[in-house]
Amino acid sequence: MSPTTTRRGTIALLGYLVESFEAASKLGYDFVAVVPPGYETLLEKDGIRAVAWNFDKINEKSTQLAETLISMGVRLAVPLYEETVEWAGALNARFFGNPRLFNRAWALRDKAMMKRKAQMSGIRVGVFEEVDTHEDVRRFFRRVNEASGRMDSDPPFPVHLKPTTAAGSVGHHYIKTEQDVDEVPDDGFPCMVESHLNGQEFSCEVFVHNGKIRFMNVNEYIHLGYSQLLPPTPGLEKYRDQIRREVQKLIDAFEIKHGLLHPEYFLDEQENLNFGEVANRIPGGHIFDLIQRAYGFDPFAAQILCSDPETSEEELMEFFPDEVNGKKGHAGNLLVYPKKKRVTSLAVPDELEKEPYYLQHDLFEPVTEKVRERAGFGDHYGKIDFFGEDADRLRDVLLHFETLDFYE
Known about the structure:
Blueprint: E1 10-14, H1 18-26, E2 30-35, H2 40-45, E3 50-52, H3 63-71, E4 74-79, H4 85-95, H5 100-107, H6 111-120, E5 128-131, H7 134-147, E6 159-162, E7 173-175, E8 191-195, E9 200-209, E10 212-223, E11 227-230, H8 234-237, H9 240-253, E12 258-267, E13 273-279, H10 287-295, H11 299-307, H12 313-319, E14 330-335, H13 350-354, E15 358-361, E16 383-388, H14 391-402
Parallel strand pairs: 1-2, 1-4, 2-3
Antiparallel strand pairs: 5-8, 6-7, 6-8, 9-10, 9-12, 10-11, 11-14, 12-13, 14-16, 15-16
């Protein structure tokens, strides 16, 4: 469909993301960007209508955002990052006159509620509990280890502590001993603890329209937060049909009709798929860039199209390629983080340029010698992109370059 296509009404894009703004324009949407205070002036200089809004602050004036957008003719809200998901749910509940849309959005934000909803729907999850104190975590740790049949000579069975609404791995603590519990700051509560899930971890990027999967990517984590590739290696690819069934079960359980889902699963040795968690926004780790490289379509545009109930079946069929036969190759990236605590310069090894699967990098020279603390799996010092025909070979390439330090 051409950029000059006239679409009914206006949509709101919640968050600042240039790729999504460009995609909306190319698709012919009239849109408003709802951005944190300070960004609206810059956007308006570029001719983009913008509304400033503090997504972290919820008070009695929160309904003003809906009223402002309604007055601008907005009929749909699309969340671009984690902190805007429940806002999109609340706004769409107003736009469509359906209060349940907010409840569904909130269930995709609160990790404990999310796990409980999945469990009630017969989806495999680990043991989990909401906790308020350090002692609650210790008690959960002991109970999990007792239930696992651990002997005194066995290493402890680990558990994970996570904030209920943070994105990705922000605030995540890996508890291997009771002493590790003391490392959790007091302001880390309340939160959620859950048992460790063994197996191969992967994510899906699922574009849903009218309750059906229109395209499902499977992203294989080589090492979560450091390296990944898609479509996956044959060892994981062979489970695509099983994965698709589990994802559809998730869509049905959460009553998702439109939009983007980013669920994470663990494939164990018994070939069971265990649900980790799910997000309702654009994934991190530059996964959308990999999808575009591997399949040739714009996933930022795909999110907008699938979020819009008015998108036609014909447009969706024309837009998405075949998941299996439509790939151009396998795309991967390495998120680089210095292995030292202090660095002075970027040092890219010559062998990187000689690697046939190497495409490009955006690693930058350090501004200061002290390496900054890593929050979750963000704050990397750039990424290295790879592309090739053989997924197994690409995996080996990523594993090799993961061992190298690109900073002196």
